[in-house]
Amino acid sequence: MARQLTNAKPKNMKKTLSSFKKYIGNHKYAFVFIGLLVILSTSISLWGTYQIKTVVNRYVLKNDYHGLVSFIIFMAIVYFIGATATAIYKQLMVHTAQSIVQELRNDLFAKMQKLPISYFDGHPHGEIMSRFTNDLDTIQDALNNCFDTLIQSFIMIVGTLILIFVLSWKLSLIVFACMILMYFLIQYLSQRSKKYFKKQQNAMGYLNGFIEEMVDGIKVVKVFNHEKENSIEFDYRNQELYDSAVEALTYSGRTIPTVVSISYFNYALVASIGGLFAINGIMDLGSLSSYLVFVRQTAMPINQFTQQLNFILAAMAGAERIFDLMNESEEVDEGKVTLTQVEILEDGSMQESNHYTGHWAWRHPRDNGIELVELKGDVRFHDVVFGYNETHPILKDINLFAKPGQKIAFVGSTGAGKTTIINLINRFYDITKGSITYDGIDVKLIKKDDLRKSISIVLQDTHLFTGTIADNIRYGKLDASDEEVIEAAKLANADSFIRRLPNGYQTMLSSDGTNLSQGQRQLLAIARAAICNPPVLILDEATSSIDTRTEKLIEKGMDRLMENRTVFVIAHRLSTVRNSDAIMVLDHGQIIERGSHDELLEKKGRYYQLYTGQFELD
């Protein structure tokens, strides 16, 4: 079923067509072949209608039954050729359209992977998803239905006009006037119906948004006994959708009856006048027969041509939104320092190795050659200033260091800048001033892929993918063996609960692991971080959603995991950071206190207030 369209039009048609040209150009020979087949098929249809004149004048009126049968057989062969051409170009159009949409989808996804985190922070996920769904679907519909139909309708309109003028130019003046009237009426009704369809889609969007919100918050609704109020609100929004849909379909429904009425009137008028022409010898009966068939089929190609133009405009509007995303600036990576496997020689020096050794180093190109710097996990901030908007810094003059194997904790109220510091270590964002070094190398010199390969992070919002538990743990190291998966789960103390599940490590998880408890999802996220065996580990409020018993299980596993690693921890509960080597207390983007747990308690400053409950942590 063809979807209803709103007044969607591209803002810059020329630019959009220029961008789309690449995808069309990849299949130019297919489009040329399809066009030729459409021309052949449509021409046969027009020729067949015109040949009614020959059948009537040469065979029917002269009672030439033998000639009639021979001509019918010939016509059947010609029509078979036309039908074959139609079947071929329809199938070819399907494959070509799917190929173009596949290429667009691949390029769009590849582009999305290269966009910086800041893009996703500034655009709703639903808006990004609509590029993959609504916009690509609209383009697919247009390619599947519009290209061949547009050519076919155009040839039918032009061919019909030429042939009816050949048959009788006097009658054609009447037909031409009716066709102009029909075209403008279709345009008028289409514009009015599109206005109401837009109103209908808005009403549907509001209703769907309300339903989604109520489903997500159904527990809150039931706790406060607001089912009745929600039903009243739903009825109101549903009635709005009903009213707008009736208006839209009423105008849309008037199009076909109007076109049909004009067509019948035109046909009756032409048949009457044509009959008088035939009686008076102005026009032969065969020509009149062909002419009347042409008149009957004039309405459909005009209606189709108008509809396909609207589909193309909607498809170009969708393409414009897709190309707008594709033209977004990609994440900049000018780093040249990469990670490499190294072998430790007897004299303690390092050399690159092509096989797995368990030892890593930074491969740092210098003017005088390649320098290998051992990967240790030494992270330092030097006078770092950062703001999402450069004129409004969030972090100010941050100085800190984390030596290999140290555990550094960040505490502070919401908005203090804890998570922002973590994002800078990963280079999700680049700092405004100062520098961040990793093993003495400025992180801007390190390729982002290699930098992030050396850091494992447990995000604040745990996200699991649809698949088995083993697959989700293995996401941290795609080539990990089953033994490595189990070992990582044991380190995170997740092995015991996994084995209690009916299918163990092969248990399928639903979207985002909703068939597990929050604590179990957190344990799997920690196992996923553990499996890649990183020198730097980041726990971004990793235990904030876990009960005390589960937290103790995690702490035991994490104590083993944190050995010989640099660890950064953010937590809501101060009990999780007491054994840190250094605690950084942040407030409004600045480190206002630093030291060990005991040292900070002795100072009786902000940390002391947080710890004793005089000040809220979050």
UniProtKB/TrEMBL annotation:
It is a multi-pass membrane protein. Residues 32-314 form the ABC transmembrane type-1 domain. Its main location: membrane. Keywords: ATP-binding, Cell membrane, Membrane, Nucleotide-binding, Transmembrane, Transmembrane helix, Transport. The keyword Transmembrane applies. The chain crosses the membrane at residues 29-48, 68-89, 149-167, 173-190, 264-283. The keyword DNA-binding does not apply. CDD domains: ABC_6TM_Tm288_like, ABCC_Glucan_exporter_like. Residues 379-613 form the ABC transporter domain. GO terms for molecular function: ABC-type oligopeptide transporter activity; ATP binding; ATP hydrolysis activity. SMART domains: AAA (SM00382). InterPro entries: AAA+_ATPase (IPR003593), ABC1_TM_dom (IPR011527), ABC1_TM_sf (IPR036640), ABC_transporter-like_ATP-bd (IPR003439), ABC_transporter-like_CS (IPR017871), P-loop_NTPase (IPR027417), Type_1_exporter (IPR039421). Pfam families: ABC_membrane (PF00664), ABC_tran (PF00005). One of its GO terms (cellular component) is plasma membrane. Signal peptide: none annotated. It is found in: Cell membrane. This is ABC transporter ATP-binding protein/permease. It comes from Faecalibacillus intestinalis.
